[in-house]
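[Automated response] Your request has been received and processed.

Submitted sequence:
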Amino acid sequence: MSNGLGTFRAVYLVSICCMGSFLFAYDTGIIGGILTLPSFQEDFRYGKAQQTSVNSNAVSVLQAGGFFGCFLIWPIAARFGRRWSLVVASVIFEVGAILQVVNSHSIDLFYLGRVISGLGVGAATVLVPIYAAEMSPKEIRGRLGSCFQLFFAGGVCVSYWVDYAVESRVAPSTRQWQIPIGLQMVPGGLVGLGMLLIKESARWLAKRGRNVEALESLVWVRGEDTPEVRAEFAEILMGIQEEIRATEGVTWRELNLPANRLRLFIAVTLQLCQQLTGNTSLAYYAPQIFASVGAGTSNLLITGFFGIIKVISVLCFQAFLVERIGRKWAFIGGAAAMGTLMLIIAIVVEVYPPDPNATKITSSGVAAISMVYAEAASYNLSWGPVAWLYLGEIFPSRIREIGVASGAASQWIFNFMMSQVTPHAIANIGAWKTFLMFCILNYAIVVYSWWILRETAGKSLEEMETVFGSAETAFDVEATRRKAILDAADKRATIESIEPVGEGS
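Generated structure:
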């Protein structure tokens, strides 16, 4: 795709829907700081004895809502499309955010708001990868698909600095905790309003038999009607026809095809591996982890820069790596780098244990913190952006909703698992053994990536049938593309050869 209008529209579309990813990250990251504010504890009338359970519940109920949101949005997305499903997700989230920001003095009502917001956020984690993959041109699909992680890293970064700002700059009051919670309504509203200004997914429209609208949508997002766009549209139609032919129109039968069973297995295990890298644990418990490696009293400020490192890393990945190294080598290289860095951190923390009474950063603390920063950079140069990109592009059109929903729901389960395991691991086996555990897991992920994952870079979504060895639904994509280009060229030549009829003829 070479025209500037098409590139602009693709970037604009993906940016709007990826605000859902920003929302996911901000909502997840902001809660840790809010729960430490005395003003929040005073307004919701709970004491030190209940603090641990409130902290755990506030995180867990959002994750529970996110898990169920993945499956509740699946039939809505299949029936009503991607755009309107994202509007629904936005409205649901806003309702939950209102319940959270109101000073009701009821922690149970706050929990209810978290659950409802979780439903909206969970829906977004399904819809954003699907919509981005379906509407992005294959030449830059990697770069655009990585926007999910870019916006996620941005949301985490903003949440860290907002927490730091309200704690250090806003006097203890109801407003102190309402500001960070209320701010999440801005990206939540932008998702819903933004959907009203863009087109529905061309692939979803084609799957529903609305071919005229599907072609209009594809032409809109590509910027112009060209033989190449007609060829892409022919691929989409042929892919859907082959899926229907192979399964007699029964979607559930498609799930049992060997290639699709493999893809479902990958969707679930990919999300498990993403959590086992240890990066989510670093994100959830960054202040505690930085304190455990010798950050002294500067842990919150260091956590803020931790978020900036993530954003810069994703930008570098998008600009220089994503379309050059492919998906598989990003997975392999990222896991190998993270494993090595986790090992270095474990050695530094064990050989030079941090002083719990230190008020400034020690030299060993600087080394450990630098390695944690490097580990976060490695994650955001590989598993962070590529896992969500890969999830959105591997499934065929007719089972894409259930496939991505299964992967996204798994993410919420494994996210919950790691959020529960990490603090206990640090408390019971110590920081250095926790980092060593993640080192071993990352090296195991290298083996998984080498043997299980397939390279998808540079392939259209219809070519994934060949990539994953689906003998039942694979077709000659190149032949279909060539025929469509020739047909479009012949049609244009015929039109141009007709002499104009009118005044002066």
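Summary generated for your ticket: The longest helix spans residues 299-351. The chain has 24 helices and no strands.
If you did not submit this request, please reply to this message.
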